[in-house]
Automatic annotation (TrEMBL):
InterPro entries: ADP-ribosylglycohydrolase, Ribosyl_crysJ1, Ribosyl_crysJ1_sf. Mg(2+) binds at T90, D91, D92, D330, D332, S333. Its cofactor is Mg(2+). Residues 13-34 have a biased composition (Low complexity). Residues 1-12 have a biased composition (Pro residues). Residues 35-44 have a biased composition (Polar residues). This is ADP-ribosylglycohydrolase. Residues 1-44 are annotated as: Disordered.
Length: 374
């Protein structure tokens, strides 16, 4: 995304000035110990994930479309990258909130299912499309599809089946954070929210994987085991087409069967998971992560590169965000996803108050997080 001219200007810390809002990476970010749901306590994973994704989004907003040498010359060492002032987010966070509001409405009405979810999320996406705050250079696919969703046509006719842009999964974290969903509900809902705009099978599979990763981390999964768990999940679901949630979407493509359609998406995700597994073993912290797993403009690469940045620094969330923001690709979406993973893993207490307290849309992010952490 390019920075809109009508936004308040950001004021990042100059390259020769020490950051003031965050501790050094070897300083504890919270005095609250991590606690798991299994011992009767909560780490506030939902709040942590939502705040983290917004912080990553804001941190990566000014660096998107810049190569790494340009970013370093403008902002100084990547480990000292400062949150801009004001901490303005992009459509990544805006659409995450739209999805979150829709999920809240749908689940207030009863058990989450495809019709109930569509009827709640679809109008939120349309409202975002018309909002005067939708001025953060949103992606073309989201804009085209949301314009088509503003009417009575079946949502499948609005879905862009040729698009697998990262708009599909930059916003999916709430699906992984909502408590009480079955695996079928979580997978179906993750794929449906993607399909409302991005109907390519890889967009569906990458959204499913992203929500799965957030869910596993929120439940206490070991980050170092995560890539293997996700690979197993992808293999198990490779030919599972969620017809109850997706209807006849597959017929809009050129595939001979729904199983063939969805397998195309999972196969691309399995390829990127293999690259991710190799990168986790061999990546240099000082090298642009995009060189290992892609620049993140497409859904599976945004998932993998965001996850790689988190896995490089699983217990240093601010460092993970900074690494994700100083990349040559879709920096805001990569950092957004890295923040969602880190916050789900470590909880709300991992983010410096000096950052979290001034992020745009903070009250709504905290409100949704509190609902799902309860």
């Amino acid at each position: 995304m390019t920075t809109p001219t009508n936004l308040p200007p950001t004021d990042p810390t100059p390259a020769n000035t020490a950051p003031t809002d965050t501790p050094r990476t070897n300083t504890p970010l919270t005095n609250t110990p991590r606690q798991s749901a299994s011992n009767g306590h909560t780490k506030q994973a939902a709040t942590g994930s939502l705040i983290g994704l917004a912080l990553g989004d804001a941190l990566g907003f000014p660096t998107e479309f810049k190569n790494v040498p340009t970013i370093l010359s403008s902002y100084g060492p990547w480990r000292a990258l400062e949150l801009p002032r004001p901490a303005i987010v992009t459509d990544d966070t805006q659409m995450t909130l739209a999805l979150g509001r829709g999920l809240r409405t749908a689940m207030d009405r009863g058990l989450l299912g495809p019709q109930r979810m569509e009827h709640a999320v679809r109008p939120e996406f349309v409202e975002w499309y018309h909002s005067p705050e939708n001025n953060r250079a949103p992606g073309r696919t989201c804009m085209v599809a949301c314009r088509l969703l503003d009417g009575e046509r079946p949502w499948q006719e609005a879905s862009q089946v040729g698009s697998k842009g990262c708009g599909a999964n930059m916003r999916v974290a709430p699906i992984g954070l909502v408590p009480g969903l079955s695996e079928e509900q979580r997978a179906g809902a993750a794929q449906l929210q993607s399909a409302l705009t991005h109907g390519h099978p890889t967009a569906l599979a990458a959204s499913d994987l992203t929500a799965r990763a957030v869910h596993l981390l929120a439940q206490g999964a070991d980050p170092m085991a995560l890539t293997g768990l996700l690979r197993s999940y992808a293999l198990e679901n490779r030919t599972t087409y969620h017809e109850r949630w997706l209807g006849d979407l597959w017929t809009r493509a050129q595939d001979p069967s729904p199983e063939h359609f969805i397998a195309r998406g999972w196969d691309e995700c399995l390829e990127i998971l293999a690259r991710l597994a190799e990168a986790v073993r061999s990546v240099n912290e000082e090298t642009d992560p995009c060189l290992a797993t892609g620049e993140g403009w497409i859904a599976e690469e945004a998932f993998a590169t965001g996850l790689l940045c988190f896995l490089m620094f699983p217990d240093e969330p601010v460092t993970a965000l900074r690494r994700a923001a100083v990349t040559s690709g879709d920096s805001d979406s990569i950092a957004c996803l890295a923040g969602a993973f880190a916050g789900a893993h470590l909880g709300a207490g991992c983010w410096p108050a000096a950052w979290a307290d001034r992020i745009e849309y903070r009250s709504e992010l905290v409100g949704l997080g509190a609902l799902w952490d309860a």
